[in-house]
Request: fold
Amino acid sequence: MKVGFIGLGNMGAPMAANLAKAGHAVTGFDVAAPCPEGVAPAASAPEAAAGQEVVITMLPNGEILRSVAAEIIPAMDRGAVFLDCSTVDVDSARAVAGQAQAAGILPLDAPVSGGVVGAEAGTLTFMAGGSDAAFATAEPLFEVMGQKAVPCGPSGNGQAAKICNNMILGVTMIATCEAFALADKLGLDRQKMYDVVSTSSGYSWTMNAYTPAPGIGANSPADNGYKPGFAAELMLKDLRLSQQAAEAVDADTPTGQAATALYERFVESEGGAGKDFSAMLPRFEKRGRG
Ligand code: NAD
Reply:
């Protein structure tokens, strides 16, 4: 397929490279990053978008997505698919989808989970919002870049699924870390704690697959000095999006709100920036109730 790819950062570059490796004709553009091997460089976003069957964006946030969309929608062919894989607020996803539709373009918001490792290995999970026709066009590209793509309903629902998932992830990581820190103070060995919880009703992805305690359970960033992995600031970004969305629809999300406040403090004033989001455990270890 003829593919335009805009936003060739940590995630976009390996995703675009995998598409090129699989034989798709990929043209790329980024304001700062170079094109990866196999991707033809364009001089601007509209140039990368013109004449393509699918245009993929992988950008930092909703504001940048809106500005890139305003540039590329007029340049795109009618009937082409505008596939946004960035994590953005639901409002921006829906606004951009509306503009694309008005121009005869098929929008699909499909944020990912799986991180840089998944982007490199082609094992991302996509959660997609948009029409069946847009999903069907994008499916062969999802197969190259990922292991799973789930259609979630109309435009914006991919982003909704992503922020709900990551709100659970942030909350359960905090719960897992505070429980380990409590166990320490109660004199319960971490390995015993893991052996019980990982096979009991407290089990979770954070406990079983991403164990935040070094040397215990799954091999994870905790075993590598809490080098990300999934950086605490990216967790904070997604938690903030969850609270922005919750406010917009008047949803009561008290633990999501508490997790957002904790990650905010962790990143902004407790040295958490640049660390994996599981570094909440050493944070709790050092603290008392005060
Ligand atoms: P990144 O900052 O490495 O990449 C973003 C790229 O967009 C940069 O190279 C930047 O130069 C480019 N860019 C910015 N403005 C632009 C413009 N106007 N035109 C063209 N290019 C522009 O970020 P990333 O880690 O690749 O993340 C991209 C998206 O994926 C984000 O929305 C992020 O939340 C999401 N995401 C990231 C991860 C992760 O682990 N890194 C995991 C899941 C989802």
Summary: The CA atoms of residues 183 and 189 lie 7 Å apart.
